[in-house]
Design brief:
Growth Hormone, Chain: A, 2 domains
């Protein structure tokens, strides 16, 4: 999500020959690849506010429906690890069109899904297709524009990527309220087909790039298949573990124990295998360095908070405050406007202020936003949530752009593609963990608070009897018989108890997210200073 420039700093950068324009109409190409990337990023959040509709339409719980969000993110992260090799093997144009085609077809299939299992399967396919689009779009733009114009091209691209997560819940809410949740996915069909056709005509591979690709293939371009499978197994098992843990009673379930064993074994095998490969699927040696490793962890936390809040806010206003899906999406919109403005501001600050200083400021502001949400209560209005999101919109650009700039500091040019893939993976995996974290904390803390509050609701207590009498009198004054009024009063007390339980559980969620944000501060302070004055890098 950043601003950026040299081909060397872009994934799949091709060296000096990459500066040669790859299309006769570079600005049209920039708009097309930005639109394709917009669709891909949009689908990380468009389903969030539609989850109640999906759950109701398919007869499943909202916890189960949340797999629609998390499986997409995990599939997206897994495919990122193979995107560099596939782009080199088949060519950028071919691979980009293949990714966009798979994404478009699977989007339509998602819209026609007949049950949750089918929807999740098509979302996984959609995630695989979308995974290579955003990093590859960056390198296509680096080729299409000369160095002096790349900043403007990446600004257009960056705006599309920043706006998409905000538009997603609003658009998804409107479509769900006025049409059906199916249109959250079907809308990608016509847009995707037109974009595929347009990019196929406009995008041209340079002769130098094509010659170099063929030479690499002739010399035996190799893919770390075992490493890729270990990474995919680890990430997939981790996601199942996080999502099914609460539902299946964690390690009281044989299934969860088996998944945990697979996750641990895949992780244990992945580390020695990847650090000893010459061309690993994931270069874990980068993560082991102080500079890049700290950036990786902060990006993981940033993705976690972004997706966790994008999941939690629409969920709480719909379930506890009765907002429509459209209004739930609009809660996030003011924050999106602030994020857009802050992207421009931070883009200027990047060349003048040390990234670690900006990261500390961003983490503190994000933590403040989360702390504000711990003051939630049953009578807060629309602007309470919107203003909190606006504060978050100030902090997130400080994190995203600064992390990307700091992470590239000191990297050899040949490692930039791996760095981009790892940063994108950190954001996606962090987002997936964030969505699962919300579900897990809510489930556990609701149970905890319900047990504690029920202990206080003793029918024989004076306070309970006094409240019951007052509420019974109220319903009786509204025309109910004494017996019916008494039942209504008991039901009302129970409803108030459940509302209080939910509020306390959501407060706990935001306390946890605040601590995650604060954890980024010491990590940022461990970063070394970087040379200022250069252009920022674009990261998604």
């Amino acid at each position: 999500m950043s601003a950026a420039t040299p081909a060397a700093a872009s994934p799949f950068a091709a060296g000096p020959t990459a500066a040669k324009p790859a299309a006769a109409t570079p600005w049209l190409l920039a708009m097309l690849v930005a639109l394709a990337s917009f669709m891909e990023v949009l689908d990380t959040t468009i389903a969030n506010v539609a989850l109640p509709y999906i759950a109701g339409g398919m007869g499943v719980s909202e916890d189960e429906a949340s797999w629609v969000v998390t499986t997409y993110l995990v599939a997206n992260a897994i495919s990122l690890t193979a995107s560099s090799f596939l782009a080199q093997r088949f060519g950028r144009k071919t691979f980009f069109l293949l990714c966009l085609g798979i994404f478009t077809v699977s989007s339509v299939l998602c819209g026609f899904s007949w049950n949750l299992q089918a929807l999740i399967a098509f979302r996984i396919l959609q995630g695989f297709g979308g995974g290579g689009m955003v990093p590859l779009a960056q390198s296509i733009l680096a080729d299409a524009f000369p160095p002096v114009k790349r900043g403007q091209a990446f600004a257009l691209f960056g705006v599309a990527v920043v706006v998409a997560p905000v538009v997603g819940p609003t658009l998804g809410g409107w479509l769900s309220d006025n049409l059906s949740w199916h249109w959250c996915f079907l809308i990608n069909g016509p847009v995707g087909m037109l974009t595929v056709a347009a990019i196929a005509v406009v995008l041209k591979e340079s002769a130098a790039m094509e010659a170099r690709r063929k030479e690499q293939v002739r010399q035996g371009l190799s893919f770390d298949l075992i490493g890729f499978l270990l990474v995919a197994t680890f990430l997939g098992a981790l996601e199942v573990l996080l999502d099914r843990g609460v539902e299946d009673d964690w390690f009281g379930s044989t299934f969860i124990v088996r998944v945990a064993v697979v996750c641990v074994v895949a992780f244990a095998l992945m580390i020695p295998w990847e650090i000893t490969r010459k061309n690993p699927a994931v270069d874990l040696r980068l993560v082991a360095t102080r500079q890049f490793g700290a950036c990786f962890l902060v990006m993981l936390a940033t993705g976690l908070i972004l997706l966790a809040t994008t999941q939690a806010l629409p969920q709480i206003v719909q379930t506890e405050f009765g907002y429509s899906a459209t209004l739930a999406g609009l809660v996030l919109s003011p924050g999106g406007v602030v994020t857009f403005v802050m992207m421009l501001v931070v883009g200027r600050l990047i060349g003048k202020v040390q990234p670690r200083t900006l990261i500390v400021a961003g983490a503190a502001i994000v933590a403040l936003s989360m702390y504000d949400l711990t003051n939630i209560y049953a009578d807060v209005d629309f602007w309470f949530f919107a203003q909190s999101r606006m504060v978050l919109g100030i902090g997130l650009p400080l994190l995203f752009l600064s992390i990307t700039t700091a992470s590239y500091s000191g990297l050899p040019p040949g490692k930039t593609d791996q760095a981009s893939a790892l940063m994108n993976m950190a954001r996606n995996v962090g987002g997936s963990i964030g969505v699962s974290l919300v579900s897990n904390v809510l489930a556990n803390r609701e149970q905890f608070h319900q047990n504690r509050l029920i202990e206080q609701v003793i029918p024989s207590s004076t306070a309970y009897q006094s409240t019951l009498q007052q509420v019974t009198d109220y319903f009786a004054s509204q025309g109910s018989s004494l017996g019916k009024a008494n039942l209504q009063a008991i039901a009302w007390i129970g409803q108030q108890l459940q509302t209080q339980v939910a509020m306390l559980a959501y407060m706990d969620v935001f306390w946890v997210l605040m601590l995650v944000a604060l954890a980024g501060i010491p990590l940022a302070l461990s970063l070394r200073k970087v040379a200022l004055g250069g252009p920022a890098h674009v990261g998604h």
